[in-house]
Amino acid sequence: MELYEAINSRRTVRDFEAEPIPAEVLERIIEAAFKAPTNDHMRDWHYIIVRDINVTAKLLDIIPKGISDEDMQALINDWNLSDSIQQECYRNAVPKQYRMLFDASAVIIPLLKQKTDLLHPDNISHLNGFASIWCSIENIFLCATAEGYSCNLRIPLGNEAEHARSVLGFPNDYFMPCFIGIGKPKSDIAPVKQKQIDIKQRIHWDRF
User: Fold this and answer.
1) H-type alpha helices, 10-156
2) Which DSSP category does 22 fall into?
3) Residue 191 lies inside a defined structural domain of this protein
4) Distance between CA atoms of 198 and 200, rounded to whole angstroms?
5) Count of structural domains within the chain
6) 126 DSSP assignment
7) Does this model's pTM top 0.85?
8) Would 76 be classed as within a structural domain?
9) Which of 39, 43, 83, 107 has the fewest C-beta atoms under 10 angstroms from its C-beta?
10) Residue 146 domain-assigned (yes or no)
11) Nearest residue to 179 via CA among 127, 104, 113, 118
12) In whole angstroms, what is the distance from residue 108 CA to residue 125 CA?
């Protein structure tokens, strides 16, 4: 798949077929992740690929399995989500946070060496390592698309990252930025409407 085709085809997917992904495909996707820019040229990243359903169940046990309509509305109010398209995106995504990972063919856990306090950086440069691994994660999303698969993403909330550490055994000096679910998208998924951006209004030549 050509690069721009992969970029234009990429969609966050939360409904998957029950279809395994060959190990060599997952390895190829992760190899591409290591081609991303890195702040210190060391690429001190690791990726845990969880395919064992029993490990997946333990890993995700801490994630809520649903949300009531009342709590969903309260979340929309608390987050000041006033745009109707944005609200619909959240109404589609939030109830699927557990299932979108549990039903995925694999759950990928990115890890980066934690050299500074990411939540209390002294300056923006201390976030360079964090920024780099997100470039790596974007490579995963695009390469998964090129391979015919799709991904979703969850940022850990509360104690979810420490729970993942206890289940997966990664060292204390490695930081987990997200969960990634990857799999073959179901063929009958109804697309979620996205806000359309007029690029000409967002590009500024020479000054704002």
Assistant:
1) 23-33, 53-60, 69-78, 84-93, 99-102, 128-146
2) -
3) yes
4) 5
5) 1
6) G
7) yes
8) no
9) 83
10) yes
11) 104
12) 27
The reported pLDDT for the residue numbered 61 is 97
**Which amino acid does the sequence have at 171?**
P
Low-confidence ranges of the chain (pLDDT < 70): none
Tell me which H or E stretch contains 111.
strand 106-113
Give the ranges where 147-194 is alpha helix by DSSP (H).
160-168
CA–CA separation, 108 vs 44, rounded Å? 16
Give the integer Cα–Cα distance in Å for 99 and 81: 24
Q: Is residue 142 part of a domain?
A: yes
Q: What are phi and psi of 46, to 5 degrees?
A: -135, 155
The model's pLDDT over 106-158, given as tens digits with 9 standing for 90+, comes to 999 999 998 888 889 999 999 999 999 999 999 999 999 999 999 999 999 99
Question: Who's near 200: CB < 8 A, 6+ residues apart?
Answer: none
pLDDT of residue 114: 85
Give me the residue label for tokens 């999303």.
141
Task: Quote the domain boundaries for residue 166.
Answer: 3-63+98-202
pLDDT for the residue 203: 97
Q: Which residues contact 208 (CB under 8 A, 6 or more apart)?
A: none
Burial of 26 (0-12, 13-18, 19+ CB in 10 A): buried
